[in-house]
């Protein structure tokens, strides 16, 4: 009887212990997050690991497909997703900690095409512009009235089409440019960058059911990383070309 009572008590406590552990979700997006030797690595992963240490949080970091991770972060308790662009539409769905990173989105063409893009109007009339249709950038340009957009399923498709001359332009962030070009067989030396038309601040998005006091602790810890220079040092190691948030 005593043993059964003890087991019942322990099992009764397990949900409260489990609920206190954070699931920190991210996607494959080098160099900010990716798997290296089977373990999560990258700029954002290193920042999050340091925040886990500074807040003394019980937490795990997992790489999942974006759609599944986004759904879990919106609907489950004690879940956070990084790195997420903070937008007006997403604002009420999460509790936000950040920014941890800022990216600049530019238009890119092949250098051999000798295109010159100095304005949004020129970009809108320069020929077909390929973009993954699920990207926020695609939505933004569509709202701005661009009629030359060509939706593709992935960054690799986008770059491959540019390489073979099937489109005149692509648009992407400086954060992931090198890796995205490599996926389609191009290098930064083969493309021409044009005007930066959008800047995006990236955050850690906590689920609405996560303890708000814990979210505030994470924000204070991130502020501390900014004040003592550790956030800058991590950024300069991984992303020396990227501007400060």
What does this structure look like?
The chain is α/β, with parallel strands linked by helices and 245 residues long. 39% of the residues lie in helices and 28% in strands. The protein is built from nine helices and ten strands. It has helices at residues 2-19, 43-55, 66-75, 120-124, 136-143, 155-163, 177-183, 212-227, 230-238, and strands spanning 22-26, 34-36, 39-41, 59-63, 79-85, 95-110, 129-132, 149-152, 169-173, 191-206. The strands form two sheets. An eight-stranded mixed β-sheet has the order 4-1-5-10-6-9-7-8, sandwiched between helices. A two-stranded antiparallel sheet has the order 2-3. Helix 2 (43-55) crosses helix 8 (212-227) and helix 6 (155-163) crosses helix 7.
Ranges with pLDDT <50 over ≥5 residues?
Answer: 5-19
Going across the major beta sheet, what is the strand order? 4-1-5-10-6-9-7-8
Q: Using the CA coordinates, give the radius of gyration.
A: 21 Å
From the spread of the alpha carbons, the general shape counts as: elongated
Order of helices and strands: HEEEHEHEEHEHEHEHEHH
Measured between the Cα atoms of the first and last residue, the distance is 60 Å
Relative helix content:
25-40%
Structural class: alpha/beta
Biggest pleated-sheet summary: 8 strands, mixed
What is the mean pLDDT? 91
With helices defined by DSSP (H or I, 4 residues minimum), what is the helix count? 9
**Strand percent estimate:** 25-35%
Oligomerization status of the protein chains: single chain
Number of strands: 10
């Amino acid at each position: 009887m005593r043993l059964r009572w003890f087991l019942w008590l322990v099992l009764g406590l397990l949900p409260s212990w489990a609920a206190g552990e954070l699931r920190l979700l991210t996607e494959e997006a080098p160099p900010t997050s990716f798997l290296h030797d089977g373990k999560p690595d990258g700029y954002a992963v290193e920042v999050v690991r340091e925040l886990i240490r500074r807040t003394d949080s019980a937490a795990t970091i997992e790489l999942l497909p974006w759609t599944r991770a986004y759904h879990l972060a919106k609907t489950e308790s004690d879940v956070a997703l990084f790195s997420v662009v903070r937008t007006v539409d997403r604002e009420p769905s999460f509790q936000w900690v950040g920014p941890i990173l800022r990216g600049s989105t530019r238009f890119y063409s092949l250098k051999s095409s000798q295109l010159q893009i100095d304005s949004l109007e020129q970009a809108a009339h320069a020929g077909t512009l390929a973009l993954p249709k699920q990207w926020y950038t695609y939505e933004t340009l569509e709202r701005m009235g661009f009629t030359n957009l060509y939706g593709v399923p992935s960054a690799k498709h986008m770059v491959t089409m540019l390489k073979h001359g099937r489109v005149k332009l692509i648009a992407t962030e400086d954060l992931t440019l090198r890796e995205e070009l490599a996926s389609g067989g191009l290098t930064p030396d083969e493309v021409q960058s044009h005007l930066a038309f959008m800047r995006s601040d990236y955050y850690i998005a906590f689920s609405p059911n996560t303890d708000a006091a814990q979210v505030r602790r994470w924000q204070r810890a991130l502020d501390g990383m900014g004040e003592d220079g550790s956030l800058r040092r991590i950024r300069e190691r991984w992303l020396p070309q990227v501007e400060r948030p």
